C-alpha cells in the first residue's frame, strides 16, 4: 500500500471516529468508539492521541472523548453560521439585560447541538456554561426544539406528543433538573430562516418562581426572537 493510500485511509478513519462521537451527542468512551468504528483498541488509541493533540478531541473528567475546540472553530468558519450568531447574540443580550435571565444560542449540527455562546445574568446566584458546550438532545429545552423543528428521525409516541405541544406553543420548557445539568429551568425557542429551516435556538435559563413566570418569560423570548430576519 502506498503512502498516499495509507494517508487517505487514515483520514477516512479519523472522520469516522469524529462522526461516531458526534452521533452520540459529542462524547463517547474509547471502548464504545472502538466497537462502533470496527477498530482494535490499540489502533484506536493512536487516532485518539493524534486527534486530541490537534484539538479535534478533548477528554472530559469522566474519561470520555468529546468534540474539541479546533473542530468547533472549524464549524464556526462555515459560511452562514457566524452570520446567524452575529444577528442573534445582540437580541439575546438585550433580553438578558431587560429580564435579568441568562441567555444562550445553540446551533444545530448534523448530529446534535452545541451551545455556541452563553450570556450570564447579573444575579448573584446563577449558573454558568462555557461557550461551545454540547447540549443533550433528550434532556434540555433546546433539545426539544431540535426534535420539534429539526431533522429528528423516528420519534417515539411520547416524543411525538411532546413535539406537537412544542409546535403549538412555539417554545419548549425543561421543568425538572436533569443529571449533568444545573438545577435551573430553561426555555428555548426556534430561530428559522425564510424557508422555515431551523438554523439556531435561543435559550433562556434561571430559577423561575412559578408557571406564570415561565409563561411570561417564554412569550417575551418568542417576541424578541421573532424580530430576527434571516
TrEMBL record:
One of its GO terms (biological process) is negative regulation of DNA-templated transcription. Residues 8-69 form the HTH iclR-type domain. It holds the Pfam family HTH_IclR. Residues 70-230 form the IclR-ED domain. It comes from the Bacteria. Keywords: DNA-binding, Transcription, Transcription regulation. GO terms for molecular function: DNA binding; DNA-binding transcription factor activity. InterPro entries: GAF-like_dom_sf, HTH_MetabolicPath_Reg, Tscrpt_reg_IclR_C, Tscrpt_reg_IclR_N, WH-like_DNA-bd_sf, WH_DNA-bd_sf. PANTHER family: HELIX-TURN-HELIX TRANSCRIPTIONAL REGULATOR, ICLR FAMILY, TRANSCRIPTIONAL REGULATORY PROTEIN. This is Helix-turn-helix domain-containing protein. It comes from Atlantibacter subterraneus.
Amino acid at each position: 500500500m502506498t503512502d498516499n493510500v495509507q494517508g487517505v485511509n487514515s483520514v477516512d478513519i479519523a472522520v469516522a471516529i469524529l462522526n461516531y462521537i458526534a452521533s452520540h451527542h459529542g462524547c463517547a468512551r474509547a471502548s464504545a468508539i472502538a466497537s462502533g468504528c470496527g477498530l482494535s483498541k490499540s489502533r484506536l488509541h493512536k487516532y485518539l492521541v493524534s486527534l486530541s493533540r490537534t484539538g479535534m478531541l478533548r477528554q472530559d473528567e469522566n474519561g470520555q472523548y468529546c468534540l474539541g475546540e479546533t473542530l468547533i472553530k472549524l464549524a464556526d468558519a462555515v459560511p452562514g453560521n457566524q452570520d446567524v450568531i452575529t444577528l442573534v447574540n445582540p437580541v439575546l443580550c438585550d433580553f438578558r439585560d431587560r429580564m435579568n435571565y441568562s441567555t444562550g444560542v445553540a446551533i444545530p449540527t448534523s448530529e446534535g447541538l452545541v451551545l455556541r455562546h452563553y450570556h450570564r445574568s447579573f444575579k448573584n446566584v446563577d449558573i454558568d456554561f462555557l461557550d461551545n458546550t454540547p447540549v443533550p438532545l433528550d434532556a434540555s429545552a433546546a433539545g426539544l426544539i431540535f426534535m420539534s423543528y429539526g431533522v429528528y428521525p423516528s420519534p417515539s409516541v411520547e416524543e411525538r406528543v411532546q413535539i406537537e405541544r412544542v409546535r403549538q406553543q412555539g417554545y419548549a420548557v425543561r421543568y425538572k433538573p436533569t443529571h449533568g445539568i444545573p438545577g435551573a429551568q430553561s426555555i428555548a425557542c426556534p430561530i428559522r430562516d425564510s424557508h422555515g429551516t431551523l438554523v439556531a435556538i435561543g435559550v433562556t435559563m434561571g430559577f423561575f418562581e412559578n408557571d406564570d413566570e415561565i409563561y411570561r418569560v417564554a412569550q417575551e423570548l418568542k417576541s424578541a426572537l421573532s424580530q430576527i430576519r434571516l
